[in-house]
């Protein structure tokens, strides 16, 4: 199989002249910007991978006296820490991306929802925001950003739960449709984008879609910031071109004894060693918001699975039954199997439960618990039982 | 001492009295006192003209808006997979031995609470903790002792 290999890229953290890029964007028409973003092939960098250009197109098409651009900085997926680094190092590009989004969809107001765990960053971010507001005033563009803090709820990274939280409510996801592009925060048309997505847009406007899409593959254009942790000699944040295989990734970051890589965090997929070579990291293989966790052969995959299930049982908002009860039962279920209180075939029943949760849960949390559950149970069955 | 005085009024002036002001007001109280009493939640409800159940319902949804008494310094130990693999257990043990309390408890001088928390975004520098909003990473039992001593002498 011919692949792109592992290529390090330096777009996201590159220092740029924000004023020039913004002036260029403000002189483009809405259609031109949407066309550039669509052509770049950019898909949302938070993990779900919705095409950014389409999101903006739909929001721009809505008629409303008020619209919002929301930056989702509620980075809570286990193993993901790239948005913190981006905000710490290049917040001006995040603010700039929001202004471009605002101009495109017709929003005068942006809100950054920053997870409470990153509150230590806030004083610095507010200073940078001040500079940013001064700059766009000088350019002569009317746009304002405010910051809102989360308070330790993973579910608020789900877009509609995040809106509820901004509105002062419990962070419980809404039914969809309507989608945020029609009814988002304060029930107004809203484009909600991940931190990295907004920075990527700055780079696309700066260098043009044609140049950006040279990177990556047909399904996964461009590059992506990866958060690498676990059993690796070089944990940290790396921007890599999309389209590499897990094997190529492991060759670079593994410790020589990697038995599994969890791609996409607790809600993502577990790739075992035998699948490293034929699994591509990207939308054609295993998609990821950037979380890459390596496990070597000293680790028990039962402990990994138990840790994830414990996480989900705590973080489920409790609103819908499949997720609330399902997470608890999966957790109790694997404990019973491990203790030998039930037959090992009980695992098959639990896999069915995880599948039901995928179909019946209201939001992405309950729907994705089965990803890790199925891939870990299928590939490491003995470790779960014995 | 938990005497909020004019705090709720001041926060309401600052953030407004809309429903969307509720969480910033709750966060403002927690910033100062580390947890929410029943009394302060009733006071906020009156200030915003909503029911106290709405305030409690919202506050109790969020892990960082504690409705249980907490110390001046809340130590949140990350228990998610990477921190767990890289020695979270030792960190908890060290904290428990040093402060003579267990996870979920508060010291009798009301200075420290230890709680476990889910991923705080420092997996590449595990194990990690937050003390109030400040992260401390790549911890060892020795480092933890030094950090806590620093807070004791504040």
Label the structural class of chain B: alpha+beta
Query: What number of domains of chain B?
Result: 2
Order of helices and strands of chain A: HHHEHEHEHEHHEEHEEEHHHHH
Topology-level CATH name of the largest domain in chain A? Rossmann fold
Distance between the termini of chain B: 17 Å
User: What structural class results from the helix and strand content of chain A?
Assistant: alpha/beta
The order of strands across the largest sheet of chain B is 2-1-3-4
The CATH superfamily of the largest domain in chain B appears as: Glutaredoxin
Q: What's the helix count of chain B?
A: 7
CATH superfamily of the largest domain in chain A: NADH-ubiquinone oxidoreductase 51kDa subunit
Tell me the span between the first and last alpha carbons of chain A.
36 Å
Q: Which stretches of chain A are low in confidence, meaning pLDDT under 50 for 5 or more residues running?
A: none
What would you note in describing this structure?
The complex is a heterodimer of chains A (386) and B (154). Helix content of chain A is 45%, strand content 14%. Chain A has 386 residues and is α/β, with parallel strands linked by helices. Chain A folds into 3 domains: 18-212, NADH-ubiquinone oxidoreductase 51kDa subunit (Rossmann fold); 223-296, Ubiquitin-like (UB roll) (Roll); 301-385, Up-down Bundle (de novo design (two linked rop proteins)). In chain A, the strands form 2 sheets. In chain A, strands 6-5-9-7-8 form a 5-stranded mixed sheet. A 4-stranded parallel sheet of chain A has the order 3-2-1-4, with helices on both faces. Chain A is globular, with a radius of gyration of 21 Å. With 154 residues, chain B is α+β, with helices and mostly antiparallel strands. Chain B contains 7 helices and 4 strands. In chain B, strand 3 (129-131) and strand 4 form a beta hairpin. Chain B starts with 6 loop residues before the first helix and ends with a helix. The interface between A and B is large, with 49 and 37 residues.
């Amino acid at each position: 199989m011919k692949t792109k290999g592992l290529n390090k890229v330096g777009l996201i953290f590159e220092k740029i002249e924000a004023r020039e890029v913004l002036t260029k964007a403000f002189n483009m028409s809405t259609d031109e910007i949407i066309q550039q973003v669509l052509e770049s092939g950019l898909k949302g960098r938070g993990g779900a991978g919705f095409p950014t250009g389409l999101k903006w197109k739909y929001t721009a098409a809505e008629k409303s006296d008020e619209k919002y651009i929301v930056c989702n900085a509620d980075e809570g997926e286990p193993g993901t820490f790239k948005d913190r680094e981006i905000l710490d190092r290049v917040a001006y590009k995040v603010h700039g991306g929001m202004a471009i989004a605002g101009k495109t969809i017709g929003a005068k107001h942006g809100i950054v929802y920053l997870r409470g765990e990153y509150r230590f960053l806030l004083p610095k971010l507010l200073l940078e925001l001040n500079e940013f507001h001064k700059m766009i005033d000088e350019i002569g563009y009317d746009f304002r950003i405010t910051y809102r803090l989360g308070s330790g709820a993973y579910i608020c990274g789900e877009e509609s739960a995040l809106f509820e939280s901004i509105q002062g409510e419990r962070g419980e996801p809404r039914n969809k449709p309507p989608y945020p592009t029609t009814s988002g925060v304060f029930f107004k048309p809203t484009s909600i984008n991940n931190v990295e997505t907004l920075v990527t847009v700055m780079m696309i406007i700066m260098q043009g879609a044609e140049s950006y899409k040279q990177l990556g593959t047909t399904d996964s254009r461009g590059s992506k910031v990866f958060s690498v942790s676990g059993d690796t000699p070089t944990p940290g944040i790396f921007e890599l071109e999309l389209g590499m295989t897990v094997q190529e990734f492991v060759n670079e970051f593994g410790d020589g004894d990697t038995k599994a890589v969890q791609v996409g965090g607790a809600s993502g997929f577990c790739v075992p060693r035998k699948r490293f070579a034929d699994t591509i990291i990207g939308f054609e293989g295993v998609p990821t918001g950037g979380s890459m966790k390596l496990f070597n052969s000293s680790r028990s995959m039962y402990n990994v699975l138990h840790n994830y299930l414990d996480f989900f049982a705590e973080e489920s908002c409790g609103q819908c039954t499949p997720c609330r009860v399902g997470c608890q039962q999966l957790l109790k279920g694997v404990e019973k199997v491990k203790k030998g209180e039930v037959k090992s075939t009980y695992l098959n029943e639990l896999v069915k439960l995880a599948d039901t949760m995928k179909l019946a849960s209201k939001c992405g949390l309950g729907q994705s618990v089965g990803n890790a559950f199925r891939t870990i149970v299928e590939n490491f069955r003995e470790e779960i039982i014995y | 001492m938990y005497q909020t005085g004019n705090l709720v009024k001041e926060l309401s002036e600052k953030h407004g009295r809309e429903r969307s002001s509720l969480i910033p007001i709750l966060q403002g109280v927690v910033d100062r006192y580390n947890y929410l009493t029943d009394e302060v939640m009733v006071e906020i409800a009156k200030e915003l003209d909503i029911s106290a159940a709405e305030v409690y319902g919202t506050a109790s949804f969020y892990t960082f808006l504690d409705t249980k008494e907490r110390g001046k310094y809340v130590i949140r130990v990350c228990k998610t997979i990477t921190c767990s693999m890289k020695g979270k257990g030792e960190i908890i043990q060290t904290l428990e031995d040093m402060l003579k309390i267990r996870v979920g408890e508060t010291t009798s001088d009301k200075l420290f609470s230890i709680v476990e928390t889910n991923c705080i975004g420092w997996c590449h520098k595990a194990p990690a903790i937050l003390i109030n909003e400040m992260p401390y990473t790549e911890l060892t039992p020795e480092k933890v002792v030094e950090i806590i001593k620093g807070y004791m002498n504040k």
